[in-house]
Write a structure and sequence with these properties.
The chain crosses the membrane at residues 6-27. By secondary structure, this protein is of the alpha/beta class. Helices cover 42% and strands 18% of the residues. It has one domain (33-266): Alpha/Beta hydrolase fold, catalytic domain (Rossmann fold, 3-Layer(aba) Sandwich).
Length: 271
């Protein structure tokens, strides 16, 4: 092979690498936010007695949400649920139903770009979305912050952890949290310079280390999406109680709405 051919091959390889990195940079959020954009049904059709409510963000978006009333005369506490990166709020209906049966009021909502909502999701946008949910609860429904629990699922752990720095809740439940988004991405794409490419960071471990609120971390011992060691690391940083379900994978029902999960949420209810 002549020197000219070698140079051409090397230039071609460099161009391919540059092209791949450029595509990852441009389209990375489509890999992160796996939104189900399908409009969800009316709340009452899925959760009897639940309300359809609207949340308004400070950048002018209107988001769909469901407010679920508890069984019993008055809620023990109110739970703000921040979803993971997939699906929409309809997929969290079983969790909301079980929390309501346990005497908790629940707000489940969809981020921008999910569940028929306008907008495109990113880290800054999700921070605005969860603040709209928080304002709805404390301003419109007059929920005392001392009776408000934050529940984060996977990516939602980052969303509520960041919110808790500004508005500390009575308790924080983190289900399958990761250290930060780059740590998860590096495991999925080991041959890419993930930390250099990522636009959205979601530094869960660093944020919970600054919090001083009662925290429980729930994880699956066989989680194939968020490595269990990352969830344990977050728990240590937060000085959190750890609830580990040894045989559970990331999307197993026991981690979505199982009895251990519900009991972990109830353990955070203020006495």
């Amino acid at each position: 092979m002549t020197r000219t051919v070698v140079v051409r091959v090397l230039v071609g390889l460099v161009l391919v690498v540059v092209l791949v990195l450029a595509l990852v940079w441009i389209f990375q959020r489509r890999l992160i936010y796996l939104a189900d954009t399908t409009p969800v049904p009316a709340a009452g059709a899925v959760l009897p007695g639940a309300e359809d409510v609207r949340l308004r963000t400070t950048d002018g978006l209107e988001l769909g949400a469901w407010f679920v009333h508890p069984a019993g005369p008055a809620p023990k506490a109110t739970v703000l649920v921040a979803n993971g990166n997939g699906g929409n709020r309809a997929g969290r209906a079983p969790l909301a139903a079980k929390l309501a049966q346990a005497g908790l009021a629940v707000l489940v909502f969809d981020y921008r770009g999910y569940g028929g909502n306008p907008g495109d999701p990113d880290e800054a946008g999700l921070a605005l979305d969860v603040r709209a949910a928080y304002r709805f609860l404390v301003e419109d429904r007059r929920v005392p912050p001392g009776r408000l629990l934050f529940y984060g699922e996977s990516l939602g752990c980052a969303v509520v952890a960041e919110l808790a720095l500004e508005h500390p809740p009575a308790g924080l439940l983190l289900r399958s949290p990761f250290v930060d988004l780059a740590a998860v991405g590096a495991g999925s794409y080991p041959y890419l310079p993930v930390r250099l490419l990522l636009r959205d960071r979601f530094p869960v471990r660093d944020e919970v280390a600054r919090l001083r609120v009662p925290t429980v971390v729930v994880l699956g011992g066989r989680d194939s999406i968020v490595p269990p060691d990352q969830s344990r690391e977050v728990a240590a940083a937060a000085s959190a109680r750890l609830v580990e379900l040894p045989g559970a994978d990331h999307n197993d029902p026991v981690l979505a709405d199982g009895p251990e999960l519900v009991e972990a949420v109830l353990s955070l209810v203020p006495r």
